[in-house]
Amino acid sequence: MNMHTARAAFGVDTLKSILGISVLAIRWDDAVALLARSIAERRFTKVTFLNAHNANVAYTDPVVAEALDDFLILPDGVGVDLAAKLLYGASFPDNLNGTDFIPAFLQASARPMTVGLLGATQVNAEAASRKLAALALQHRFVVIHDGYFSAAEEPAIVDRIAGLRPDVLLVAMGVPRQELWIARHIDARHCTLPIAVGALLDFLSGMVPRAPLWMRRLRLEWLFRLWIEPGRLWRRYVVGNPLFLWRVIGQKFLRRPAPAKTRPRAGPRAGTGADH
């Protein structure tokens, strides 16, 4: 399932276009049921999440924008909520950020599954696997590889995924590498549900702290992350968030939602590290 089939299944009203990216506007429980149904029916579905940073990347990169057209996209964070309210008069029904949603989805899925983990450092991936195994005893968690591999290593990694054929493949390589990697290497022969999860494995490992619950409830987790990692994240939040809102205002009043898709196709992007 991608956003085109989602449009047919749920109707146009359940999709909100944010800077040209179609995001599914459904409740938390409905999203859990949707992914569970995809697995039960073995319906290959690429999944990712849209937040202000991802939207900015796709806005300026036609390759990323084109790749996202074939993903089922869930809303992540206060930025896209503000955008939805500005553009459509209402926020998304729920904040389906992957850090909270994916563990909850795995816990809620009673049917035993095999879940592959790809990305982060080996130490963090192994720690995340143990944490997930404790949260969801019914599933088998397998670390495929860390996220720091060369192009020469890719065929062996892809072959290992195909041999395992997990129900769910969590890909944690950072934006946009994880989405592009899934788009270029993963299809129905490899797994049923490849999900781009950003820093999820780092959070689950405990090596990267999460904001206190009160900050998360106030939708200020981005501020906590900026405080923890200012050198790496200041451009994303201090520059990126106002730029995102400015672009959304442009979408509302100038009706120019997706300039990236109208530009010539760019060449492939390289990278071997994780930039969550």
Topology:
Blueprint: H1 3-10, E1 15-18, E2 21-24, H2 28-40, E3 47-50, H3 52-60, H4 62-68, E4 72-75, H5 78-88, H6 98-108, E5 114-119, H7 122-135, E6 140-145, H8 154-164, E7 168-172, H9 177-185, E8 193-196, H10 200-205, H11 213-217, H12 221-228, H13 230-254
Parallel strand pairs: 3-4, 5-6, 5-7, 7-8
Antiparallel strand pairs: 1-2
Question: How would you describe the overall organization of this protein?
Answer:
The chain is of the alpha/beta class. It has one domain. The chain is 50% helix and 13% strand. It contains 13 helices and 8 strands. The strands form 3 sheets. It has a 4-stranded parallel beta sheet with strand order 6-5-7-8, with helices on both faces. Strands 1-2 form a two-stranded antiparallel sheet. Strands 3-4 form a two-stranded parallel ribbon. Helix 5 runs parallel beside helix 13 and helix 12 packs antiparallel against helix 13. It is globular and about 50 Å long. The two termini are 25 Å apart. The C terminus is likely disordered. Keywords: Glycosyltransferase, Transferase. It holds the Pfam family Glyco_tran_WecG.
